[in-house]
Write a structure and sequence with these properties.
alpha/beta, D-Maltodextrin-Binding Protein, domain 2, 2 domains, 9-stranded mixed beta sheet, globular
Length: 371
């Protein structure tokens, strides 16, 4: 029997008029509906994961090799007998890397947590993902989980603009529209709008809200572009520019660098999806990982104050992210699913801002990092 409880003989013996794919799809849905939420404690899962292999490999979307170092350190402190490997790379490289590994029978990660949201639905259709409901799954916002338990979001990410309070002073911009003011010329850092898909979606929202004439004015502002969506944060932290566009931050911050959630103008947010591969070698450790990520303790410690769980209160001064209409929470997954539209927007912004240049900020990792 396979993981869905359906043998090859059962499929081949199905009634006339039902193809094997249809039978398997129905069985998969039925099996997923019967998957109960995890009841084992973290300690019980930990002991089972150590007995299974004591190893775990996570492919995580990000901009720098050390971007998940805090998370990894916390996991290792809580579960010291698990040999955890976290490989950070752009999600658009991780997803095709995983596809190639699946095609060649050389899968490395047990878990993928990526910004390329469209892949999780495709991997689900292909039967690549393990249907699993970690503890707390029922409390995850419906927009942040698959109804058939193929994936769940483990964190809320948001992109907007930010400013250096010292450099910008009392006239700091309050909305993205103000970024075309001449006083910001030569003082803006941005991730490439035509490199990172989330930054691309943010610029798309700006174009739709303010028009192409505004984009043309922004292009005249002599933006300093860099690869990696952490470009604005790094540049502002080093006091090299006054404004940053296209990156994440903490909306509660009161220090020198302020990340802005506009009252009604656009910003964007999404749930970073994570899933366990059915062909993964360390599936119990993968289950432990998802359960740990969804604990209230982890969700309450979110760097930006937003949780994927409906029963975890947002940080001081914030509302649940799904109540911000200007975050366009449903828009980003729909955008990511239409790859032709993504490419049209990407190439259009290339006409305004130029081609992407520079090496990938995580480095060049090849086909099987973490093996």
């Amino acid at each position: 029997m396979d993981d869905q409880g359906l043998s090859r003989r059962t499929i081949l013996g199905a009634g006339a008029g039902l193809g094997a794919a249809a039978v398997l799809g129905s069985a998969t849905r039925a099996s997923a509906a019967g998957v109960a939420e995890e009841t084992r404690s973290l300690d019980e899962l930990y002991r089972a994961a150590v007995a299974e292999s004591g190893k775990l490999v996570v492919y995580a979307g990000g901009d720098r090799s050390d971007q998940q170092s805090g998370m990894a350190a916390a996991f290792r402190a809580r579960f010291p007998e698990i040999d955890l490997t976290v490989v950070v790379d752009y999600s658009k490289f991780h997803d095709v890397r995983i596809d190639n590994q699946l095609a060649t029978g050389t899968l490395v990660p047990d878990v993928a947590q990526l910004q390329t949201l469209q892949n999780f639905d495709r991997w689900k259709r292909e039967g690549r993902l393990l249907r699993y409901r970690p503890a707390g799954f029922g409390s995850v916002h419906n927009g942040f989980k698959d109804s058939e338990a193929a994936w769940t979001a483990i964190a809320v990410y948001g992109f907007s603009f930010s400013y250096d309070a010292d450099a910008a002073g009392a006239d700091a911009p309050r909305t993205p529209k103000q970024l075309t003011d001449p006083r910001w010329r030569g003082r803006i850092s941005s991730a490439y709008a035509n490199d990172d898909d989330a930054t691309l979606f943010l610029f798309k929202r700006y174009a739709e809200t303010y028009g192409w004439s505004w984009i043309a004015q922004l292009a005249e502002q002599q933006l300093a572009f860099g690869r990696g969506s952490d470009t604005p944060a790094r540049t502002l932290a080093a006091a090299q520019k006054a404004i940053g566009v296209g990156g994440s931050g903490d909306p509660r911050g009161t220090g020198r660098v302020r990340w802005v959630v506009p009252a009604s103008d656009p910003f964007m947010a999404w749930g970073q999806r994570a899933a366990i591969f059915a062909a993964g070698r360390n599936r119990t450790a993968a289950k432990l990982y998802l359960n740990w990520q969804l604990t209230k303790e982890r969700q309450q410690a979110a760097y930006n104050g937003w949780s994927v769980r409906t029963d975890v209160a947002p940080g001081t001064g914030l509302r649940p992210i799904w109540t911000y209409r200007n975050a366009n929470l449903d828009g980003f997954p729909a955008f990511m699913a239409d790859r032709a539209e993504v490419e049209r927007w990407r190439q259009t912004f290339s006409l305004y801002f130029g081609e992407v240049t520079g090496p990938a900020s995580p480095g060049w990792l090849g086909l099987h990092p973490g093996r």
